[in-house]
Amino acid sequence: IERFPASMVARLSLNPDALSMIVARGDSMLPTIADGDDILVDTAERRIGRRPTIFVLRIDGAVVVKRLALADGQVAIASDNPAADPIAPVALDRVEVIGRVVWLGRKLV
Prior knowledge:
The protein is mainly beta.
């Protein structure tokens, strides 16, 4: 990852070969993640647990950033923005987890 300092990768105890930096689009994860934020995704971490955690995932062909948690044998999918449309829980096999968001950065204006 050229844009992310190796010292930070080491400090975060991450494997640099499993990291991807992407730019977030949309406002569904406001106020946590804003449109245009850089997010660092750990593709080695794909395990969904009971505690809601932010992941990049593919669902129904769309790549999105959402909070995921296991609940009653299904995946609860949530946006941080209360104005975003709710998403009903889905079966685990409908979700392709790309990786966990481990860091974000944004330009202050």
